[in-house]
Design a protein that fits this description.
- It comes from Paenibacillus rhizophilus.
- This is NAD(P)-dependent alcohol dehydrogenase.
- The protein is α/β, with parallel strands linked by helices.
- The protein contains eleven helices and 17 strands.
- Strands 3, 4, 5, 8, 9, 16 and 17 form a seven-stranded mixed sheet that branches. A six-stranded parallel sheet has the order 12-11-10-13-14-15, covered by helices on one side. Strands 1-2 form a two-stranded antiparallel ribbon.
- Strand 11, helix 6 and strand 12 form a beta-alpha-beta unit.
- Helix 4 crosses helix 5 and helix 4 crosses helix 10.
- The chain is globular, with a radius of gyration of 20 Å.
- The chain starts with a strand and ends in a 7-residue tail after the last strand.
- The protein binds NADP nicotinamide-adenine-dinucleotide phosphate (NAP) and zinc ion (ZN).
- Zinc ion binds next to loops.
């Protein structure tokens, strides 16, 4: 048994407490990772607060993990001790269904295993990256390219891939007009990635407070959605809208901003259902879609793309004692643009 220090919540209100968790002994294909940094994703908060359903406490969140391999199982072929690696939102899948064969393990027909709050193939409750060590089967471990430091690598494992995948699927490229709704963790990565893919990028944020930042990240235009004029001015003007908002918004109003045949893809996962006025779809043959993270192969492709294009998230590194405060700031849309926990502070009182 491997023991790790971790931070867990014991109720929806928190707060985080220092605890110890057990990681399984290495199976032949497992690697043991010493975690160096873990990103704070809004999904951690949704999960812990029960937005998506009942929670098994104590819960150790964290699915944006970057660290170093410190031990490998007897049959591991892809990694050796010392490798710089990452783990995202999944730690396993069946490996046998059509979607796994296609490399889309996130849509595993038998259900992928989440990095936390899931039951793994050993019958154990998974616990995430707000901890010092994790054991993961090698097929779900990503290689972090040399050009990317571990602190900025962490958010790529969820915020990066969750925005990269739909941008690729709906073919972000020069000539495409793309809007990103919400300039938080996912949103700021969507802006950087869509810009690097050559698209014309517009940010739709609640206010103009972050306009200068947004333009600096690569956006061509920036509008406040609190201003009703925005919806009049931009009607019918986007090929793709990526909605990263963590709360319920008037989705029909945003659909009206799509051009004919345009798609609005929701990656934001609010607790409440979104309602759609079908006329906002029918009138211009528009689509309303969703997308969940990305497969392992595509996640590696995204990491390599970021290294090649020198793309990294904007981060604020925090200590383990600051997680509660950071969560409150995320909930208040006061994050620029991802909190990343320095795991070396995990044991601090
Ligand atoms: P985040 O950093 O909190 O960003 C969300 C942004 O949405 C905020 O910065 C804010 O942007 C905007 N926003 C928040 N509340 C709003 C409201 N009431 N009305 C309008 N806009 C609002 O969160 P994140 O970590 O990027 O995650 C975003 C969402 O994606 C979450 O629901 C998360 O669970 C989900 N997610 C989904 C996947 C997937 O696979 N589909 C993966 C990861 C995360 P402005 O200040 O610019 O308005
Ligand atoms: Zn996430």
């Amino acid at each position: 048994m491997i023991i790790a220090d971790a931070r867990a919540v014991y109720s929806p209100e928190g707060p985080f407490k220092l605890t110890i968790i057990e990681r399984r002994d290495l199976e032949p294909h497992d690697v043991l990772i010493e975690i160096k940094y873990a990103g704070v994703c809004h999904s951690d908060i949704h999960t812990a607060r029960g937005d998506w359903g009942p929670v098994n406490y104590p819960l150790v969140p964290g699915h944006e993990i970057a660290g170093i391999v410190i031990r490998v199982g007897s049959e591991v072929t892809k990694f050796t001790v010392g490798d710089r690696v990452g783990v995202g939102c999944m730690v396993d899948s069946c490996g046998e269904c059509d979607n796994c064969h296609k490399g889309e393990e996130q849509y595993c027909l038998n259900g992928m295993t989440g990095t936390y709050a899931a039951i793994d193939r050993y019958g154990q409750f998974t616990q995430g990256g707000y901890s010092t060590h994790i054991v993961v089967t090698e097929d779900f471990v990503l290689r972090i390219p040399d050009g990317i430091e571990l602190d900025v690598a962490a958010p790529l494992l969820c915020a990066g891939i969750t925005t990269y995948s739909p941008l690729r699927h709906w073919e972000a490229a020069p000539g495409k007009r793309i809007a990103v709704v919400g300039l938080g963790g996912l949103g700021h990565m969507a802006v950087k990635l869509a810009h690097a893919m050559g698209a014309e990028v517009t940010v739709l944020s609640q206010t103009l407070k972050k306009k200068e930042d947004g333009l600096g990240l690569g956006a061509d235009h920036y509008y406040a959605t609190s201003d009703p004029e925005t919806f009049k001015q931009l009607a019918g003007s986007f090929d793709l809208i990526v909605n990263t908002v963590s709360a319920k918004i008037d989705i029909s109003a945003y659909l009206s901003l799509l051009a004919t045949d345009g798609t609005l893809v929701n990656v934001g996962a609010p607790a409440e259902p979104l309602s759609v006025n079908v006329f906002s779809l029918i009138l211009d043959r528009r689509s309303f879609a969703g997308s969940m993270i990305g497969g392992i192969r595509e996640t590696q492709e995204m990491l390599d793309f970021c290294a090649e294009h020198r793309i990294a998230p904007e981060i604020e590194v925090i200590s383990a004692n600051q997680i509660d405060e950071a969560w409150e700031r995320v909930l208040a849309s006061d994050v620029r643009y991802r909190f990343v926990i320095d795991i070396s502070t995990m044991g601090n009182e």
